[in-house]
Write a structure and sequence with these properties.
Length: about 400
């Protein structure tokens, strides 16, 4: 097992403590070729976001000049609008993070559109406050099948199945978590934004039924606090065949791995040990399993808002994007910006949500990915056993 010291583990430790259409034809673009969507922030008092979305999807004339480039589909970033008192408050405070989050829409275009020209055209639209490409974060780390936590004190290599700490959960011992568990085992609400988890896994679920009786398993997953923001339902099963018809992968992956590190059932005589054994985990599924392992920008902001609204004290984000031009605090001087993502991060900070993000993958060890590079997040790096001074003691 390599790179075990992940953002999931660190977040658990925090929890322990607490243009005209004809001008838009294909030309070389500075935007990645696989991007076909733009995130648009409408100005207060401009065309209503839902009216724009409905007009695009119903092939009607699009209000506010937002039919530039002939978008083929549209959706609101926050699918569920603010209601009652919150809606009234936003109406009087439209320039707050809460207010802006209600005005973001995503427009999808055909791949023969010149996005550079389209960005300029929309930026000059008086109804548009900001426009940016819908880029994607990549998941960090990789799943492991290691079934043991290991024991650095009484490991016996002559006993079959005894957990060797040099091949098992050696990161637990580097962090001296067993000693910490003697003092505190953690009681906190932890949000995880990922691709879901294997909800029936015996190490992740809280309970199961057997012979008509309810059996306690002790896993940290809490179904009633979780949400699929990608498909707008309450199923966060990582192996849900309805997510990706015709492209279904029945193998649990990144989300189950991260969940296991953070809050798998502990002291139960099987599998691995979660860092925060008594934490309650809100899983937010922001990516349909079976596709490329990515989370698009328009999924992060609603995911953070959902986690916050359910009372999470800390949130884990084991993903990022490696780009030196992406920042919330530095002048960008580029068509690529992070208005939507930064709005979500700002809103999370306002409500004292501790944000933990993985620094990056081994492919670029000298750089810190975004959002880990943002000063409002705690960046979690990784260690590899056998390198430098890393040792089990």
């Amino acid at each position: 097992m390599k790179r075990f010291l992940s953002a999931a583990c660190l977040s658990s430790m925090v929890a322990l403590i607490l243009a005209p259409a004809d001008a838009l034809e294909a030309q070389p673009s500075a935007i990645p070729e696989d991007i076909h969507e733009l995130i648009v922030l409408l100005r207060p008092g401009a065309a209503a976001p839902q009216e724009v979305v409905d007009a695009v999807n119903e092939r009607r004339p699009v209000p506010g000049g937002l039919g530039e480039g002939n978008p083929m589909a549209a959706h609101k970033v926050l699918r569920e609008p603010a209601r009652h008192r919150m809606a009234e408050w936003i109406a009087h405070n439209p320039d707050t993070p809460e207010g802006r989050s209600q005005r973001y829409i995503v427009l999808r275009y055909r791949d023969n559109v010149n996005f550079d020209a389209l960005l300029i055209a929309l930026s000059n639209n008086p109804n548009v406050e900001n426009v940016e490409p819908n880029l994607a974060f990549e998941f960090h780390s990789a799943p492991t099948n290691d079934p043991w936590i290991g024991d650095s004190d009484d490991y016996d290599p002559n006993i079959a199945g005894d957990g060797d700490p040099t091949v098992a959960q050696w990161g637990v011992h580097i962090l001296k978590l067993p000693a910490a568990w003697n003092r505190i085992q953690g009681h906190a609400y932890l949000g995880i934004i990922d691709e879901g988890l294997e909800t029936a896994h015996s190490e992740l679920r809280l309970t199961h039924t057997s012979g008509g009786s309810l059996v306690f398993d002790g896993g940290g997953y809490r179904a009633h606090l979780s949400r699929d923001v990608a498909n707008l339902n309450c199923s966060v099963d990582e192996v849900d065949p309805q997510d990706t018809p015709g492209n279904f992968d029945p193998t649990p992956g990144h989300g189950s791995h991260v969940m296991g590190i953070a809050a798998a059932s502990t002291d139960n005589g099987e599998g691995v040990a979660g860092a925060c054994r008594s934490c309650s985990v809100e899983m937010v599924k922001a990516h349909p399993s079976g596709n490329d392992e990515q989370i698009f920008f328009d999924r992060l902001s609603p995911s953070l808002q959902f986690v916050r609204s359910r009372g999470a004290q800390a949130v884990n984000m084991s993903f990022g994007i490696n780009s030196n031009v992406l920042s919330c605090v530095e002048p960008l001087g580029s068509a690529i910006n992070l208005s939507l993502v930064c709005n979500g991060v700002a809103l999370a900070e306002r409500f004292d949500l501790v944000m933990v993000a993985s620094a990056g993958n081994k492919a670029h060890p000298q750089k810190i990915d975004f959002p880990a590079r943002d000063p409002r997040t705690i960046s979690a790096g990784g260690l590899e056993l056998g390198l430098g001074d890393v040792a089990i003691r």
